[in-house]
Fold these 2 entries.
Entry 1:
Amino acid sequence: AQSVAQPEDQVNVAEGNPLTVKCTYSVSGNPYLFWYVQYPNRGLQFLLKYITGDNLVKGSYGFEAEFNKSQTSFHLKKPSALVSDSALYFCAVNSDRGSTLGRLYFGRGTQLTVWP
Amino acid sequence: SQTIHQWPATLVQPVGSPLSLECTVEGTSNPNLYWYRQAAGRGLQLLFYSVGIGQISSEVPQNLSASRPQDRQFILSSKKLLLSDSGFYLCAWSKDSGNPYEQYFGPGTRLTVT
């Protein structure tokens, strides 16, 4: 069965500092990994994905994520946080052996707060 | 380009009343469609998904039902709302081929059952 864990409910960081939002996964087969962001009372917005290839994936708004197969992790990072990055972040997973076409398994979400 | 619409944006309904939320997708054909519920601003619960007209799969038993009367239309319904049905309802779509796992979300409907 596919699953994803976001071990931190809340991440707080000062503006200008680097940020990391953690995600670990468990899948059968090769993983497909995604990060989404949600602003208050809005739908989820796609940030980036890993399907295959380079382990370092670059996405929207200066975010990047590193796929680490041995640690089954896909942590979201940004070198310099902005106050406007404050939002709820979701990691999601499926795999090339996913039995339900197109379905994603989401983590519980991590609330990122960047203070000025 | 593809767009996804949901309406209404907000809804306040009394317990026991019916519900109909609508989701439509433009700019693509034969999408996979999904209904999620998000409670208390946190985790997403997949309620239903559909891979084609009239094809609905339910993830959890509940007071809700879904229908897909047209290729790009997905409707979430209830005959009698419960207080526990309150939440933020999100519709999403993905491609039916290529990379089907990247989902695109609508703006959501905030439902409050009183």
Entry 2:
Amino acid sequence: GESVGLHLPTLSVQEGDNSIINCAYSNSASDYFIWYKQESGKGPQFIIDIRSNMDKRQGQRVTVLLNKTVKHLSLQIAATQPGDSAVYFCAENAPSQKLVFGQGTRLTINP
Amino acid sequence: DTEVTQTPKHLVMGMTNKKSLKCEQHMGHRAMYWYKQKAKKPPELMFVYSYEKLSINESVPSRFSPECPNSSLLNLHLHALQPEDSALYLCASSLGQFDYEQYFGPGTRLTVT
């Protein structure tokens, strides 16, 4: 499944399919980006990060893509599992040297 | 130990009460943070401590008063709160202020009545 637009609040995918979560960041001076996963009743959990001198980084079942030209970040989750259900936030480091979070996307998994 | 702990998990307080939220980490991190998170919204930074000194205050009202007694502990003192202050308060830590990989605690769910 793929989110059809930026800032989509919810994304629903079939178990086993790949998920793509998109994020637009605001500041062209940002040089570090993080994806966080927040499950219900828990704090955000670090998933993967990427620096602006890279355009792709892979982790275990996750890949982050960075397109600096259009200030776009995406998180790809391979073979989505029920445990992937959560809200996913992208975050960028602002010039003021703090993390700024995006609005988040809720990922739900259909059995 | 890669955990940030927060107490209490839930807190209900009246507008005239004084209460404190506590956060603890034993990862040797020297930067600690308070965030506020409203329902269905992203975390918003409130305060940053670096080496036990307040580094960033995001224009937070004075009814919220942070304290960092030592490098492992972070408190948030609450006084005369308003109902709109009801939220999830998250603590986080990182190796240093410019290390953006932050480890979050589970949060304290605060309700102001």
